[in-house]
Amino acid sequence: MALEDDIRGMSEKEKVVFSPEKEGKKELIFDQKETILKSAEIDGEPRRVQGSNEVFYIKLASPEVAGAIFKPASGEVDFPELGYWYGDYYKRERAAYLVDRFFSFNLIPPTVIREISGEIGSLQEYIPIHRAGWQIESLSDLVAINEQDFTKMAVLDFIIWNTGRSLPNIFIVDQNKQERLICIDNSLSFRKGTVLRAEGTDKLLSLKEIPEEIINNIEKAFSNRENLEILRNMLNELLKSEEIDNFFDRIERVMYKKRITDEDIADFSY
């Protein structure tokens, strides 16, 4: 039976596999599309699309994942004002996806690391959009589209310390006759910076507490110590140890305080 067939019948927290590529190390797989993104044949030549870094649309020979967005490490540029330098943005895209799915935010499309035409980079499922964030006139209008997703995005961006969230990297998709928010471009995450620019923080502060459903999902995932350790090991291959420790500190803050304050955003000790 193919691995993707095995995954299809698993619950979210049962998706633990032994990676043949990494000498039997345990890994978490949250979506069968991860396996497809890693192994599906490329159909045609990559097509360059607009972006701050080099970005390519890749057509895949797969009915489940028709297309994907490839961001090669060689095409990354520096953002020194934010404390980011080229060479590892693609790893942060993957790390953000792992955290998103582990804690059940489900806002980031399946994202893997893959080598294409001799170039290593991140490969993320291409999601056809209903509307784009830059077409929304104001932040309040974006909240009105899906307040639950908007609040999830604010919490996610805090725990991954996303310094690059803006309207252009928020997509609106039509899912079962309901508009949902999709978060792309998560490469400026996890690094210690001086400014948290994640849009939505003001909305979260006005609520003064994180919704119980979000807290429950985080606490449930955090209580699975075996899977949590697997997540940490996977992040170790993508981020610096200090960045991982800071990430876990922010998670614990969220669980303990159940809110995010100006003090949390201004405190760079964690």
How many β-strands, per DSSP?
10
What is the end-to-end distance? 44 Å
Strand order of the largest sheet: 3-4-5-7-6
The low-pLDDT segments are 1-10
- The percent range for helix content is 25-40%
Structural class: alpha+beta
Question: Approximately what portion of the residues adopt beta-strand conformation?
Answer: 15-25%
Summarize the structure.
It is built from 10 helices and 10 strands. It has helices at residues 3-8, 32-39, 89-102, 139-145, 147-159, 201-207, 212-223, 225-236, 241-257, 262-266, and strands at residues 16-19, 25-28, 47-49, 55-59, 67-72, 111-116, 119-125, 131-132, 170-175, 178-183.
Describe it.
- With 270 residues, the chain is an alpha+beta fold.
- The chain has one domain.
- Helices cover 37% and strands 18% of the residues.
- The strands form 3 sheets. The protein has a 5-stranded antiparallel β-sheet, with helices on both faces. A 3-stranded antiparallel β-sheet has the order 8-9-10.
- Helix 4 packs across helix 5.
- The radius of gyration is 18 Å and the shape is globular.
- The N terminus is likely disordered.
